[in-house]
Please model this.
Amino acid sequence: MEMEEQTRLSEARFVKKVSERAAKHFEAGFNCAESVLMSFAESMGVRSDLIPKIATPFGGGIGRRGSVCGALTGGVLAIGLKFGRSEVKDTNRREESYEKALELFKRFEKKFGSALCYDLIKLDLTTPEGKEKIKTVRLEKCINFVRAAAKNAAQLME
Model:
């Protein structure tokens, strides 16, 4: 097997592994943003008490508001783990992370027609009814957003 083919196979395995791991975290009860971020942190060997804590309030489209999908924001946070900057002068890393985040956003929006939680699930998660209905909707619909955000973010990590 040629080196290029091996690289493609290992990249495909990485993408699949990250996506499956994110889905497993979600099935275990973590929210969408936490699940995506955790799957990347684990695959990158990042250990921090901040993960998944930093992603928790992004669930339900930021505090259940129905804004940008938590799975998507989890993917953006994962991009930051790999491509984000630590120094203010590092404008190259800032630009690269912006480009990757924008591409992730575009792919997600193209696949699902919107990047907004409310548009995707048609529930107001700030109401008692919405909080009850999400218990079943999360595994019917949201898990697909988690898998897709993880998959697309993983593809952008190359």
Notes: The radius of gyration is 16 Å. The mean pLDDT is 94. Residues 84 and 90 are 9 Å apart (CA to CA). The helical segments are 3-27, 32-44, 70-83, 91-112, 117-121, 128-156.
